[in-house]
Amino acid sequence: MPHSDDERYDDAVVETPGKVLAVTAEGLYLANLLLLPGPPFLVLVALALKHGDRDTALGRCHLRQTIAGSLWAFVLLVVVGIILAWIGRGDPAAMLTVVIIYLVCCHSVLILAGMVGLAKAMAGKAYRYPLIGRPCEA
Hints:
This protein is mainly alpha-helical. It has helices at about 5-10, 20-35, 40-50, 55-85, 90-120.
């Protein structure tokens, strides 16, 4: 007669379809924000081209969310940062203060969204980035 712990471990091995792609996409999103901007985004795009319509809904959801999130991160951090610097060019000290505060706050929110997305991906659940993400199909 099998031990009850053996049955529990057998159930834990079951992998949610698309979970690996979802976790990979979320990890690449965070790498794009935290380590080296650019190359992880290119890998995300390559994954989207390779797995875009053929993978499960979970994998597609996280992949699309992270690509959209990376594009929004570029706009929010680089483009808006440059615009703020250009607007405040008359007073360099105030401009630098405003730009640094904006970048730190915005970057932190984007990282937090990515960390929640990674946790959801690891749990095998879909996740929609707040404000910038699209609803995932069921």
